[in-house]
Amino acid sequence: MQDGSATSWCTIHRDRISRNLELARGLVPDDRKFCAVLKADAYGHGIGQVVPLVREQGVKTVGITSNAEARAVRDAGFDGTLIRLRAATLQEIEGALDERVEEQAASVTTAQQLRTLLDAGKLRTGAHLALNAAGMSRDALEISTADGQSTCHEILATLGAEIHGICSHFPSNEPAHLRQSAEQFQQQAAWVFENSDLKRSETLVHAGSSLTLISDVDVATDMYRCGAILYGILRPDLGFRPTMDLEARVISLQDYTQGMTVGYDRAHRLERDCRLACISIGYENGFRSIAHEGSAVAIRDTLAPVLGKVSMNAIVADVSGIKDVDVGDIVRVFGEGDSAAILPKLAETQFQTIMADLYTDWGQRNHRVYR
User: Fold this and answer.
1) Is 359 a residue of the active site?
2) What's the start-to-end Cα distance of the chain, in Å?
3) C-beta atoms surrounding 70 within 10 Å
4) d(CA 213, CA 207)
5) Active site includes 256?
6) Cα dihedral 56, 87, 208, 15 sign
7) Domain covering 244-342, topology
8) In 9, 65, 226, 308, which residue has its Cα 20 to 30 A from 357's Cα atom?
9) Averaged over 246-272, what is the pLDDT?
10) Residues pairing with 204 in the sheet
11) CB atoms within 10 A of CB 361
């Protein structure tokens, strides 16, 4: 149940997460594996609540980034493969030994650190060689250069058969870019096999994300690593539904006359007499300041324009044309409604960012209610 003392809250629809997961897994070819990405506290939904849904459907691999996420996944009962989806410091690697995290290796230093831990019997998992493949240029190794190939040789010599996977992350899922990245990744993976004792049949070669999974490009990958699609951010036409609602309440109703100004810096001036609702959400709760003009919220299933600049703990909406509005009414900032839905496309336009950003922000700033 929703906590009556919460000024704003996120409702997490566990049934929709389960259904989205089922739909996503149905898109994966039979000969490929599936990794459920639960980084950023399961995109703000709460790892402890999402892991049981993943386990119910027999998912064997989970992707995380931080040690806190790794511990939360294990604490929730997941005993499968846990992969870190970015580079890690030595301190992070050592701090996650009990969680049996499979780390990425893209530098000689990291490879040597992993080898030391392996030889000491402290590390009980393999590593994944991370290749850039002219991609994100973030934390993976680019082996199209002589220096990169030399580094790769050293990593291979250091870790040998402890390399259980070769991975990459595609920077663009536009069809032409995706084909180019996928082809280059496969070429570079082939180079690794040609220059090592690694066996292709025993090595997981994986790349791609939710966007790759739903693209029309058939990408060669042993496993899809999917996050966004689990939370209904993509492809509503395929049945995927948003899994989080963000709501607040009307806390005050006042009548103001034409010419009055609204909010800080008198950023908005009323062009007519208006009835304005003050709503218990602001930039502290993830209602981005950038949305102060041209955005709307749903009150009594009618869209009400937001006026003036966003305050730390409050926004103001024009409810002049909405009948029977009362203090305590629920205000929908994001979510489905009978006639006034605020769904991903509209939210991304209003807040000028992507839903993954909004979900993680909202979920970690607000009280969460699970249904």
Assistant:
1) no
2) 8
3) 25
4) 10
5) no
6) positive
7) Lyase, Ornithine Decarboxylase; Chain A, domain 1 (2.40.37)
8) 308
9) 97
10) 165
11) 19
Position 114, amino acid: L
Q: Tell me: the pLDDT tens digits for 147-181?
A: 999 999 999 999 999 999 999 999 999 999 999 99
Residues 6+ apart with CB under 8 A from 274: 255, 256, 318, 320
CA distances from 274 to 67, 131, 156, 298, 349 (A): 51, 58, 70, 17, 26
Instruction: Kindly report each contact of residues 96-100 with a partner whose C-beta sits within 8 Å and lies 24 or more positions away, as own/partner.
Output: 96/67, 96/70, 97/122, 97/123, 97/124, 98/74, 99/67, 99/70, 99/71, 99/73, 99/74, 100/124, 100/125
105 in Cβ contact with 93 (< 8 Å):
no
Grouping H, G, I as helix, E, B as strand and the rest as coil, residue 370 is strand
The tens digit of pLDDT for each residue in 34-61 reads 999 999 999 999 999 999 999 999 999 9
pLDDT-above-70 percentage for the chain:
99
pLDDT at 2 over 60: no
Sequence letter at residue 229: I
Q: What interhelical angle do 146-159 and 175-194 show, nearest 10? A: 60
Mean pLDDT of 254-283: 97
Helix (H) or strand (E) holding 360: helix 355-365
Q: How many CB atoms lie under 10 A from the CB of residue 129? A: 28
- Residue range 197-213: average pLDDT? 96
Amino acid at 260: M
Enumerate the domain spans of the chain.
14-234, 244-342
Cβ distance 178 to 212 under 8 Å? yes
Half-sphere exposure of 135 (CA within 13 A, CB side): 30
Task: Give φ, ψ of 104 to 5 degrees.
Answer: -90, 145
Residue of 39, 43, 224, 231 marked active site: 39
Distance CA 57, CA 288 (A): 36
Which candidate in 43, 199, 224, 264 is catalytic? 264
Answer positive or negative: Cα dihedral of 86, 14, 230, 303: negative
Q: Amino acid identity, residue 88?
A: A
Which residue, 132, 136, 138, is CA-closest to 187? Answer: 132
Q: Pull the structure tokens for residue 280.
A: 């218990």
Classified as helix, coil or strand, 131 is strand
